[in-house]
Specification:
The protein is an all-alpha fold and 464 residues long. The chain contains 20 helices and no strands. 75% of the residues lie in helices and 0% in strands.
Length: 464
Amino acid sequence: MGVELLALHWIYVLFIVLIIGFMVMRRDTTLICIIGIFTLAITATGSFSGSISGIFNSFIYAITELLPTILVISIIVAMSRVLTKTGINDAMISPFAKFIRTPALAYWVIGILMMVISWFFWPSPAVALLGAVLLPVAIRVGLPALGVAMAMNLFGHGIALSGDFIIQAAPKLTADAASLPVGDVITASIPLVITMGLVTTVTAFLFLKRDMKRGKLQDKPFSKITETDTDVDHSLLSSGKKKFFAFLIPLAFALDVVAMLTLNLQGGDATALIGGTSVFILLILSLTAHNHHGLEKVTGYLIEGFQFGFKVFGPVIPIAAFFYLGDAGFTKIIGGYLPEISQGIVNDLGVALAHSVPLTKEVAAVTLTSIGAITGLDGSGFSGISLAGSVANLFSTGMDGGAATLTALGQISAIWVGGGTIIPWALIPAAAICNVDPFELARRNILPVTIGLVVTTIVAMFLI
């Protein structure tokens, strides 16, 4: 027997459609989400003042849920600033330069390094860590700058960010929206991330190799940022100290991974371990490099990190606030205005859908990939993955299973499209580092990413 759908359910659906529509038109969705929160609140309570308060309370709820993710990313970025400033990142990466002897090796070595570093530092800092050191090496052996940018994009903003196995920011968002444990989403995403990564990077490499042979690959320069606050100051640390820390830091994170596996740490526990390790590295490096100015520099690096964290997640908070209303957040933010038999707005919609439309795993998989891609059009990659999780929950309720796989599929689609592989305004960091045109880079990535999404969607159909 299906549940009775109230005005609240239809309002929620209406605003989901509006949010998707605004994303397709590349318009900001913050205003729509705030109006949606207010409309749901006033429909439920009938209180104007209570509904105004509900907007603020929903933001508090979203920030509370997202705070561990925002915090760990801010700390990691702060740590990456001091690594770049002291030149330790150069010492960490430069040994790999000797392996780069051909264009093919340049593509795969840079890509794999970018993926590994992005797992721990996130892609944006990793671009800066890698680009300055390995770009000249790659160009010297014959790989165009556009090829370097493609490798960094596809492996970092694509594979590493879409899986996000170490920091677990992306799976935390989607798992919360889908009312699933983070570990379930991560486990379900592994075969999909591998499929998407292999198909896309191999396809991109084959196209790149073909066009290099034909002489069709021409780099179109982009205005490169030549001076930043993180320019290397070689006077801060001696060569010996740089080499020591270049060995110690990867070892510390490798021990973290061992601890995660042996102690079965996932989700918040794994994030806390990485975050705490990053804080200690930040403190030790700041005090060692800046001597008696170290105390002030620690604060300065943390401020830079928090500025980055809230800049990235600023657009996510209103959207997450709205989508949290689809589940347990509704009762906590607005109150108990849903019927007693209700399992939450999204679950109610899923049950109703199951009783009205025959859902198949093929339809569900295609829909989640499409929704993920559409929500990624804003160039964030993160702002829409809560929607992907909510819709996956809705569909899985209707099909009686497959929630984790559908959630992972929507997450992968959203981040590959919006996280920095085919949306030009999301490609600017890599384009700037490599001095290439971001629109040309986006054009090169479109076909491989599309092929990858098609194959990954088909694989997901068999896994649901």
